Amino acid sequence: MRIVYIFFLSIVSSTSGLLAQEGVNQLDAKGERHGIWKKYYPGTKQLRYEGRFEHGKEVGTFKFYCESCKDKPTAVKEYTSANNLARVKYFTMKGKLVSEGMMEDQNRIGEWVYYHEKSAAVMTRENYVKGKLEGKKITYYPDGTITEELNFKNGRMEGENNYYSPEGVLIKKLKYRDDQLQGEAFYYDAFGNVVISGFYKDDKKHGLWKYYKDGKVELEETYPKPAERGN
Question: Is 80 found in the same domain as 132?
Answer without folding.
Answer: no
